[in-house]
Amino acid sequence: MDEVVKRVMPHSNEAEQAVIGSMLMDANAISVVGEMITAEDFYQKNYAELFKAMMTLSSQGKACDLVTVKAQLEEQGVSSEIVSLDFIKNILDMVTTSANVKEYARIVHDKAVLRNLIRASEDITNRCYAGNETSDELLESTEKEIFELVQKGHSSEIKSIKDIALDVIDKIEKASKTRGSITGIKTGYTKLDYKLSGLQPGDLILIAARPSVGKTALALNIAEQVGLKQEIPVAIFSAEMSDESLVQRLFSQHSMISGQKIRNGELSDREWENLVETASEVGNSQIIINDTSGIDVNVMRSQCRKLKLEKDIQLIVVDYLQLLTTKSTGSHMKIGNREQEIAEISRTLKAIAKDLKVPVIALSQLNRGPEQREDKKPNIGDLRESGGLEQDADVVILMSRAYDKETKQEDKNRVIVNVAKQRNGPTGELELVWLGDYTKFENPETSHI
Protein backbone atom coordinates (compact mmCIF):
# COMPACT_ATOMS: atom_id res chain seq x y z
CA MET A 1 0.00 0.00 0.00
CA ASP A 2 1.32 3.41 -0.98
CA GLU A 3 1.91 5.78 1.86
CA VAL A 4 -0.28 8.87 1.90
CA VAL A 5 2.00 11.87 2.03
CA LYS A 6 0.47 14.95 3.58
CA ARG A 7 2.06 17.97 1.98
CA VAL A 8 2.32 21.20 3.92
CA MET A 9 1.92 24.51 2.14
CA PRO A 10 5.24 26.34 1.52
CA HIS A 11 6.18 28.61 4.41
CA SER A 12 9.09 29.57 6.63
CA ASN A 13 8.42 29.95 10.34
CA GLU A 14 11.95 31.24 10.84
CA ALA A 15 11.56 34.01 8.25
CA GLU A 16 8.17 35.05 9.64
CA GLN A 17 9.57 35.17 13.18
CA ALA A 18 12.58 37.15 11.97
CA VAL A 19 10.35 39.73 10.24
CA ILE A 20 8.23 40.27 13.36
CA GLY A 21 11.31 40.37 15.63
CA SER A 22 13.01 42.91 13.35
CA MET A 23 9.93 45.12 13.40
CA LEU A 24 9.84 45.00 17.21
CA MET A 25 13.53 45.77 17.39
CA ASP A 26 13.80 48.56 14.79
CA ALA A 27 11.13 51.14 13.86
CA ASN A 28 12.75 51.63 10.43
CA ALA A 29 12.19 47.95 9.68
CA ILE A 30 8.44 48.51 9.88
CA SER A 31 8.38 50.91 6.91
CA VAL A 32 10.75 48.67 4.93
CA VAL A 33 8.64 45.56 5.48
CA GLY A 34 5.37 47.44 4.94
CA GLU A 35 6.40 48.10 1.33
CA MET A 36 7.22 44.45 0.66
CA ILE A 37 4.56 42.27 2.28
CA THR A 38 1.06 42.32 3.79
CA ALA A 39 -0.55 40.46 6.67
CA GLU A 40 -2.02 37.98 4.15
CA ASP A 41 1.52 36.89 3.21
CA PHE A 42 2.06 35.25 6.62
CA TYR A 43 1.33 31.54 6.93
CA GLN A 44 1.06 31.60 10.73
CA LYS A 45 -1.99 33.52 11.91
CA ASN A 46 -0.21 34.60 15.11
CA TYR A 47 2.46 36.42 13.15
CA ALA A 48 -0.12 37.94 10.82
CA GLU A 49 -1.95 39.46 13.80
CA LEU A 50 1.30 40.85 15.22
CA PHE A 51 2.16 42.32 11.83
CA LYS A 52 -1.26 44.01 11.57
CA ALA A 53 -0.92 45.40 15.09
CA MET A 54 2.47 46.97 14.39
CA MET A 55 1.43 48.36 11.01
CA THR A 56 -1.62 49.97 12.66
CA LEU A 57 0.52 51.54 15.38
CA SER A 58 3.05 52.77 12.83
CA SER A 59 0.32 54.36 10.66
CA GLN A 60 -0.91 56.20 13.75
CA GLY A 61 2.58 57.49 14.52
CA LYS A 62 2.85 55.45 17.71
CA ALA A 63 5.88 53.56 18.98
CA CYS A 64 5.95 49.76 18.68
CA ASP A 65 7.12 48.11 21.88
CA LEU A 66 5.95 45.23 24.04
CA VAL A 67 3.36 47.31 25.88
CA THR A 68 1.84 49.17 22.89
CA VAL A 69 1.76 46.05 20.72
CA LYS A 70 0.02 44.08 23.51
CA ALA A 71 -2.59 46.85 23.86
CA GLN A 72 -3.19 46.93 20.09
CA LEU A 73 -3.58 43.15 19.98
CA GLU A 74 -6.21 43.39 22.67
CA GLU A 75 -8.04 45.99 20.57
CA GLN A 76 -7.94 43.60 17.61
CA GLY A 77 -9.60 40.96 19.80
CA VAL A 78 -7.04 38.22 19.13
CA SER A 79 -6.54 35.10 21.24
CA SER A 80 -4.93 35.38 24.67
CA GLU A 81 -1.88 33.33 23.71
CA ILE A 82 -0.83 35.98 21.18
CA VAL A 83 -1.50 38.80 23.62
CA SER A 84 0.89 37.17 26.09
CA LEU A 85 4.03 39.23 26.69
CA ASP A 86 6.05 36.03 26.92
CA PHE A 87 5.03 35.06 23.38
CA ILE A 88 6.13 38.46 22.02
CA LYS A 89 9.37 38.42 24.07
CA ASN A 90 10.27 34.98 22.72
CA ILE A 91 10.02 36.25 19.17
CA LEU A 92 12.17 39.28 20.01
CA ASP A 93 14.81 37.04 21.65
CA MET A 94 15.10 34.92 18.50
CA VAL A 95 16.31 37.83 16.36
CA THR A 96 19.79 39.24 16.92
CA THR A 97 19.72 41.94 14.22
CA SER A 98 17.27 43.70 11.91
CA ALA A 99 19.92 44.34 9.26
CA ASN A 100 18.64 41.48 7.07
CA VAL A 101 14.95 42.33 7.37
CA LYS A 102 14.58 42.82 3.58
CA GLU A 103 15.80 39.28 2.98
CA TYR A 104 13.46 37.90 5.66
CA ALA A 105 10.52 39.74 4.07
CA ARG A 106 11.48 38.50 0.60
CA ILE A 107 11.37 34.89 1.84
CA VAL A 108 7.93 35.46 3.40
CA HIS A 109 6.69 37.03 0.17
CA ASP A 110 8.10 34.25 -2.04
CA LYS A 111 6.45 31.55 0.07
CA ALA A 112 3.14 33.43 -0.11
CA VAL A 113 3.39 33.56 -3.93
CA LEU A 114 3.97 29.80 -4.02
CA ARG A 115 0.90 29.20 -1.84
CA ASN A 116 -1.21 31.44 -4.07
CA LEU A 117 -0.01 29.56 -7.16
CA ILE A 118 -0.91 26.24 -5.53
CA ARG A 119 -4.39 27.51 -4.62
CA ALA A 120 -4.91 28.86 -8.14
CA SER A 121 -3.79 25.59 -9.76
CA GLU A 122 -5.98 23.54 -7.42
CA ASP A 123 -8.96 25.71 -8.29
CA ILE A 124 -8.31 25.30 -12.02
CA THR A 125 -7.86 21.55 -11.61
CA ASN A 126 -11.19 21.23 -9.80
CA ARG A 127 -12.93 23.28 -12.47
CA CYS A 128 -11.40 21.11 -15.21
CA TYR A 129 -12.77 17.97 -13.53
CA ALA A 130 -16.18 19.61 -12.99
CA GLY A 131 -16.54 20.10 -16.75
CA ASN A 132 -18.90 23.06 -16.46
CA GLU A 133 -16.77 25.39 -18.60
CA THR A 134 -15.23 25.25 -22.06
CA SER A 135 -11.49 24.94 -22.53
CA ASP A 136 -11.39 28.50 -23.89
CA GLU A 137 -13.10 29.83 -20.77
CA LEU A 138 -10.73 27.90 -18.51
CA LEU A 139 -7.65 29.08 -20.40
CA GLU A 140 -8.86 32.68 -20.22
CA SER A 141 -9.52 32.56 -16.48
CA THR A 142 -6.24 30.72 -15.80
CA GLU A 143 -4.26 33.36 -17.66
CA LYS A 144 -6.12 36.11 -15.80
CA GLU A 145 -5.44 34.56 -12.38
CA ILE A 146 -1.73 34.10 -13.09
CA PHE A 147 -1.45 37.61 -14.54
CA GLU A 148 -3.11 39.07 -11.45
CA LEU A 149 -0.61 37.22 -9.26
CA VAL A 150 2.26 38.66 -11.27
CA GLN A 151 0.77 42.16 -11.28
CA LYS A 152 -0.17 42.15 -7.62
CA GLY A 153 3.35 41.29 -6.48
CA HIS A 154 3.48 42.15 -2.82
CA SER A 155 0.66 44.68 -2.75
CA SER A 156 -2.63 43.85 -1.08
CA GLU A 157 -5.54 42.83 -3.25
CA ILE A 158 -7.97 45.18 -1.55
CA LYS A 159 -6.93 48.74 -0.71
CA SER A 160 -8.45 50.44 2.29
CA ILE A 161 -10.46 53.60 1.73
CA LYS A 162 -7.77 55.45 3.70
CA ASP A 163 -5.06 54.36 1.24
CA ILE A 164 -7.24 55.27 -1.73
CA ALA A 165 -8.01 58.69 -0.23
CA LEU A 166 -4.28 59.36 0.27
CA ASP A 167 -3.57 58.34 -3.34
CA VAL A 168 -6.26 60.72 -4.62
CA ILE A 169 -4.92 63.59 -2.47
CA ASP A 170 -1.43 62.89 -3.83
CA LYS A 171 -2.69 63.14 -7.42
CA ILE A 172 -4.59 66.35 -6.66
CA GLU A 173 -1.48 67.82 -5.06
CA LYS A 174 0.60 66.96 -8.13
CA ALA A 175 -2.05 68.52 -10.38
CA SER A 176 -2.07 71.70 -8.28
CA LYS A 177 1.70 72.01 -8.57
CA THR A 178 1.42 71.87 -12.36
CA ARG A 179 -1.51 74.31 -12.34
CA GLY A 180 -3.90 71.44 -13.12
CA SER A 181 -2.49 71.00 -16.60
CA ILE A 182 -1.70 67.46 -17.75
CA THR A 183 -1.89 64.53 -15.36
CA GLY A 184 -2.12 61.78 -17.99
CA ILE A 185 -0.23 60.99 -21.19
CA LYS A 186 0.06 63.95 -23.58
CA THR A 187 -1.55 63.56 -27.00
CA GLY A 188 0.43 66.47 -28.47
CA TYR A 189 -2.75 68.46 -29.16
CA THR A 190 -2.85 71.40 -26.76
CA LYS A 191 -6.59 71.98 -26.44
CA LEU A 192 -7.40 68.27 -26.39
CA ASP A 193 -4.82 67.69 -23.66
CA TYR A 194 -6.23 70.58 -21.67
CA LYS A 195 -9.78 69.25 -21.94
CA LEU A 196 -8.84 65.64 -21.09
CA SER A 197 -5.89 66.45 -18.79
CA GLY A 198 -4.09 63.91 -20.98
CA LEU A 199 -4.98 60.28 -21.58
CA GLN A 200 -5.89 58.78 -18.21
CA PRO A 201 -4.95 55.26 -17.05
CA GLY A 202 -7.91 52.88 -17.05
CA ASP A 203 -9.95 54.97 -19.51
CA LEU A 204 -11.60 53.59 -22.64
CA ILE A 205 -11.43 56.43 -25.18
CA LEU A 206 -13.65 56.08 -28.23
CA ILE A 207 -12.74 58.07 -31.36
CA ALA A 208 -15.58 57.86 -33.89
CA ALA A 209 -16.10 59.31 -37.37
CA ARG A 210 -17.46 58.59 -40.81
CA PRO A 211 -14.99 56.94 -43.24
CA SER A 212 -12.08 59.08 -44.52
CA VAL A 213 -12.46 61.84 -41.91
CA GLY A 214 -9.16 60.93 -40.26
CA LYS A 215 -9.77 58.84 -37.15
CA THR A 216 -6.92 56.44 -37.99
CA ALA A 217 -4.64 59.38 -38.71
CA LEU A 218 -5.49 61.04 -35.38
CA ALA A 219 -4.87 57.82 -33.44
CA LEU A 220 -1.58 57.25 -35.27
CA ASN A 221 -0.54 60.87 -34.67
CA ILE A 222 -1.14 60.33 -30.95
CA ALA A 223 0.78 57.03 -31.07
CA GLU A 224 3.71 58.82 -32.73
CA GLN A 225 3.66 61.54 -30.09
CA VAL A 226 3.60 59.00 -27.26
CA GLY A 227 5.79 56.18 -28.59
CA LEU A 228 8.29 58.18 -30.63
CA LYS A 229 8.56 61.63 -29.09
CA GLN A 230 7.81 60.76 -25.46
CA GLU A 231 9.40 57.28 -25.71
CA ILE A 232 6.47 55.64 -23.91
CA PRO A 233 5.64 52.06 -25.01
CA VAL A 234 2.50 51.92 -27.21
CA ALA A 235 0.73 48.88 -28.69
CA ILE A 236 -1.26 49.34 -31.91
CA PHE A 237 -3.74 46.66 -33.00
CA SER A 238 -4.77 47.36 -36.58
CA ALA A 239 -7.39 45.10 -38.11
CA GLU A 240 -7.80 47.47 -41.07
CA MET A 241 -4.33 48.54 -42.27
CA SER A 242 -1.18 46.44 -42.69
CA ASP A 243 1.87 47.04 -40.55
CA GLU A 244 3.79 48.35 -43.58
CA SER A 245 1.06 50.87 -44.41
CA LEU A 246 1.05 52.11 -40.83
CA VAL A 247 4.83 52.48 -40.81
CA GLN A 248 4.71 54.39 -44.11
CA ARG A 249 2.25 56.78 -42.50
CA LEU A 250 4.54 57.13 -39.50
CA PHE A 251 7.43 57.93 -41.86
CA SER A 252 5.39 60.60 -43.63
CA GLN A 253 3.99 62.35 -40.57
CA HIS A 254 7.31 62.26 -38.70
CA SER A 255 9.54 63.33 -41.58
CA MET A 256 7.00 65.71 -43.17
CA ILE A 257 7.62 64.09 -46.54
CA SER A 258 4.59 63.55 -48.74
CA GLY A 259 3.10 60.09 -48.39
CA GLN A 260 2.72 59.96 -52.19
CA LYS A 261 6.44 60.58 -52.64
CA ILE A 262 7.29 57.85 -50.13
CA ARG A 263 5.00 55.35 -51.89
CA ASN A 264 6.45 56.17 -55.32
CA GLY A 265 10.05 56.55 -54.16
CA GLU A 266 10.29 59.94 -55.89
CA LEU A 267 12.59 61.53 -53.34
CA SER A 268 15.35 64.10 -53.57
CA ASP A 269 18.73 63.36 -51.98
CA ARG A 270 17.83 65.51 -48.99
CA GLU A 271 14.49 63.76 -48.59
CA TRP A 272 16.24 60.38 -48.72
CA GLU A 273 18.56 61.46 -45.92
CA ASN A 274 15.59 62.68 -43.92
CA LEU A 275 13.70 59.43 -44.55
CA VAL A 276 16.65 57.23 -43.51
CA GLU A 277 16.98 59.19 -40.28
CA THR A 278 13.22 58.90 -39.70
CA ALA A 279 13.32 55.14 -40.36
CA SER A 280 16.01 54.78 -37.71
CA GLU A 281 14.00 56.80 -35.17
CA VAL A 282 10.77 54.91 -35.88
CA GLY A 283 12.62 51.58 -35.79
CA ASN A 284 14.05 52.37 -32.37
CA SER A 285 10.80 53.77 -30.99
CA GLN A 286 8.51 52.29 -28.34
CA ILE A 287 5.74 51.49 -30.87
CA ILE A 288 4.55 47.87 -31.24
CA ILE A 289 2.24 46.93 -34.13
CA ASN A 290 -0.04 43.91 -34.58
CA ASP A 291 -1.93 43.88 -37.89
CA THR A 292 -3.80 40.57 -37.51
CA SER A 293 -7.06 40.81 -39.45
CA GLY A 294 -10.22 40.07 -37.47
CA ILE A 295 -8.28 39.44 -34.28
CA ASP A 296 -10.32 37.97 -31.44
CA VAL A 297 -10.71 40.50 -28.64
CA ASN A 298 -9.77 37.91 -26.00
CA VAL A 299 -6.63 36.96 -27.93
CA MET A 300 -5.81 40.66 -28.05
CA ARG A 301 -6.39 40.86 -24.30
CA SER A 302 -3.93 38.02 -23.77
CA GLN A 303 -1.33 39.73 -25.96
CA CYS A 304 -1.80 43.02 -24.10
CA ARG A 305 -1.14 41.29 -20.78
CA LYS A 306 2.05 39.80 -22.23
CA LEU A 307 3.16 43.18 -23.60
CA LYS A 308 2.41 44.82 -20.25
CA LEU A 309 4.71 42.37 -18.51
CA GLU A 310 7.47 42.40 -21.12
CA LYS A 311 7.38 45.99 -22.44
CA ASP A 312 5.31 47.82 -19.80
CA ILE A 313 3.02 49.31 -22.46
CA GLN A 314 1.31 52.51 -21.31
CA LEU A 315 -1.15 53.02 -24.21
CA ILE A 316 -3.18 50.72 -26.46
CA VAL A 317 -4.68 51.77 -29.80
CA VAL A 318 -7.32 49.63 -31.56
CA ASP A 319 -8.17 50.32 -35.22
CA TYR A 320 -10.99 49.70 -35.36
CA LEU A 321 -13.52 48.26 -32.93
CA GLN A 322 -16.05 46.89 -35.42
CA LEU A 323 -13.35 44.75 -37.07
CA LEU A 324 -12.58 42.83 -33.88
CA THR A 325 -14.22 39.46 -33.34
CA THR A 326 -15.33 37.32 -30.42
CA LYS A 327 -15.08 33.57 -29.97
CA SER A 328 -18.75 33.27 -30.95
CA THR A 329 -18.32 35.06 -34.28
CA GLY A 330 -18.98 32.79 -37.20
CA SER A 331 -19.67 29.77 -34.99
CA HIS A 332 -22.90 27.93 -34.22
CA MET A 333 -22.82 29.31 -30.65
CA LYS A 334 -23.61 32.91 -31.41
CA ILE A 335 -24.10 35.22 -28.44
CA GLY A 336 -26.88 37.06 -30.20
CA ASN A 337 -27.08 39.91 -32.68
CA ARG A 338 -24.29 42.18 -33.83
CA GLU A 339 -25.13 44.83 -31.26
CA GLN A 340 -24.63 42.32 -28.44
CA GLU A 341 -21.35 41.24 -29.96
CA ILE A 342 -20.07 44.83 -30.13
CA ALA A 343 -21.20 45.32 -26.54
CA GLU A 344 -19.07 42.31 -25.51
CA ILE A 345 -16.08 43.73 -27.39
CA SER A 346 -16.44 47.15 -25.76
CA ARG A 347 -16.77 45.58 -22.29
CA THR A 348 -13.58 43.61 -22.90
CA LEU A 349 -11.71 46.72 -24.07
CA LYS A 350 -12.81 48.55 -20.93
CA ALA A 351 -11.66 45.59 -18.84
CA ILE A 352 -8.25 45.69 -20.54
CA ALA A 353 -7.91 49.40 -19.73
CA LYS A 354 -8.90 48.84 -16.11
CA ASP A 355 -6.87 45.67 -15.50
CA LEU A 356 -3.66 46.98 -17.09
CA LYS A 357 -4.20 50.53 -15.80
CA VAL A 358 -3.56 52.06 -19.24
CA PRO A 359 -5.67 54.21 -21.57
CA VAL A 360 -7.18 52.30 -24.50
CA ILE A 361 -8.03 54.29 -27.64
CA ALA A 362 -10.58 52.42 -29.75
CA LEU A 363 -11.69 53.72 -33.14
CA SER A 364 -15.28 53.27 -34.24
CA GLN A 365 -17.43 53.86 -37.30
CA LEU A 366 -20.44 56.18 -37.30
CA ASN A 367 -23.62 55.46 -39.20
CA ARG A 368 -24.98 57.80 -41.89
CA GLY A 369 -26.91 59.96 -39.42
CA PRO A 370 -24.65 63.05 -39.77
CA GLU A 371 -25.18 63.15 -43.53
CA GLN A 372 -28.91 63.73 -42.98
CA ARG A 373 -28.38 66.81 -40.82
CA GLU A 374 -27.97 70.37 -42.01
CA ASP A 375 -24.76 70.99 -40.04
CA LYS A 376 -23.38 67.47 -40.79
CA LYS A 377 -22.31 67.12 -37.16
CA PRO A 378 -22.40 63.66 -35.54
CA ASN A 379 -23.75 62.86 -32.11
CA ILE A 380 -23.29 59.88 -29.80
CA GLY A 381 -26.45 58.26 -31.13
CA ASP A 382 -24.67 57.86 -34.49
CA LEU A 383 -22.30 55.24 -33.12
CA ARG A 384 -22.74 52.19 -35.29
CA GLU A 385 -24.21 49.25 -33.37
CA SER A 386 -23.87 51.54 -30.38
CA GLY A 387 -25.34 49.15 -27.78
CA GLY A 388 -22.89 49.32 -24.89
CA LEU A 389 -20.30 51.59 -26.55
CA GLU A 390 -21.53 54.80 -24.98
CA GLN A 391 -21.97 53.10 -21.62
CA ASP A 392 -18.49 51.50 -21.50
CA ALA A 393 -16.52 54.45 -22.90
CA ASP A 394 -15.11 56.96 -20.43
CA VAL A 395 -14.48 59.43 -23.25
CA VAL A 396 -16.25 59.68 -26.62
CA ILE A 397 -14.62 61.86 -29.28
CA LEU A 398 -16.58 62.54 -32.49
CA MET A 399 -14.76 63.83 -35.56
CA SER A 400 -16.23 65.68 -38.53
CA ARG A 401 -15.03 68.07 -41.19
CA ALA A 402 -15.79 71.75 -40.71
CA TYR A 403 -18.96 72.52 -42.69
CA ASP A 404 -20.26 75.85 -43.95
CA LYS A 405 -24.07 75.76 -43.92
CA GLU A 406 -24.32 78.80 -46.22
CA THR A 407 -22.07 77.50 -49.00
CA LYS A 408 -22.91 73.89 -48.16
CA GLN A 409 -19.21 73.06 -48.53
CA GLU A 410 -16.82 71.11 -46.35
CA ASP A 411 -13.41 72.52 -45.46
CA LYS A 412 -11.13 69.54 -45.97
CA ASN A 413 -8.29 71.26 -44.13
CA ARG A 414 -10.22 71.76 -40.88
CA VAL A 415 -11.62 69.02 -38.66
CA ILE A 416 -13.91 69.50 -35.67
CA VAL A 417 -13.03 67.27 -32.71
CA ASN A 418 -15.97 67.07 -30.34
CA VAL A 419 -15.42 65.60 -26.87
CA ALA A 420 -19.07 64.53 -26.66
CA LYS A 421 -18.70 62.57 -23.44
CA GLN A 422 -16.17 62.63 -20.65
CA ARG A 423 -17.00 60.79 -17.47
CA ASN A 424 -14.68 62.87 -15.29
CA GLY A 425 -14.27 66.14 -17.13
CA PRO A 426 -15.66 68.79 -19.47
CA THR A 427 -17.04 68.25 -22.95
CA GLY A 428 -16.96 70.55 -25.97
CA GLU A 429 -15.43 71.13 -29.37
CA LEU A 430 -11.98 72.03 -30.60
CA GLU A 431 -10.46 72.35 -34.04
CA LEU A 432 -7.46 70.68 -35.68
CA VAL A 433 -5.79 71.41 -39.01
CA TRP A 434 -5.49 68.55 -41.50
CA LEU A 435 -2.30 68.19 -43.55
CA GLY A 436 -3.41 65.62 -46.09
CA ASP A 437 -0.04 65.16 -47.79
CA TYR A 438 1.42 63.87 -44.53
CA THR A 439 -1.74 62.25 -43.03
CA LYS A 440 -1.16 64.50 -40.07
CA PHE A 441 -3.17 66.75 -37.77
CA GLU A 442 -1.70 69.89 -36.25
CA ASN A 443 -2.73 72.43 -33.63
CA PRO A 444 -4.24 75.47 -35.41
CA GLU A 445 -1.86 77.81 -33.56
CA THR A 446 1.23 76.00 -34.90
CA SER A 447 -0.02 75.18 -38.38
CA HIS A 448 1.29 77.02 -41.45
CA ILE A 449 -2.04 76.67 -43.27
Task: Describe this protein with a few key phrases.
49% helix, alpha/beta, single chain, 9 strands, 449 residues
Would you write up a description of this structure?
By secondary structure, this protein is of the alpha/beta class. Helix content is 49%, strand content 14%. The protein contains 17 helices and nine strands. It has a nine-stranded mixed β-sheet, sandwiched between helices. Helix 3 (45-59) packs across helix 4 (66-76) and helix 7 packs antiparallel against helix 8 (135-152). Residues 154-158 and 329-335 have low confidence and may be disordered.
How much strand? 5-15%
The helix count comes to 17
Query: What pattern of helices and strands is seen along the backbone?
Result: HHHHHHHHHHEHEHHHEHEHEHEEEE
Helix content: 40-55%
Basic shape: elongated
Query: Regions with pLDDT < 50 over 5+ consecutive residues?
Result: 154-158, 329-335
Cα gyration radius (Å): 28 Å
Mean pLDDT: 83
Number of strands: 9
Class inferred from helices and paired strands: alpha/beta
The biggest beta sheet is recorded as: 9 strands, mixed
Quote the distance from N terminus to C terminus: 88 Å
Q: Strands across the major sheet, in which order?
A: 3-2-4-5-1-6-7-8-9
Put the structure in a nutshell.
This protein is an alpha/beta fold and 449 residues long.
Secondary structure layout:
Blueprint: H1 13-25, H2 27-34, H3 45-59, H4 66-76, H5 80-83, H6 85-94, H7 101-130, H8 135-152, H9 161-177, H10 190-196, E1 204-209, H11 215-229, E2 234-238, H12 243-255, H13 259-264, H14 269-283, E3 287-290, H15 297-311, E4 315-319, H16 338-356, E5 360-365, H17 389-392, E6 395-404, E7 409-422, E8 428-435, E9 440-442
Parallel strand pairs: 1-5, 1-6, 2-3, 2-4, 4-5
Antiparallel strand pairs: 6-7, 7-8, 8-9
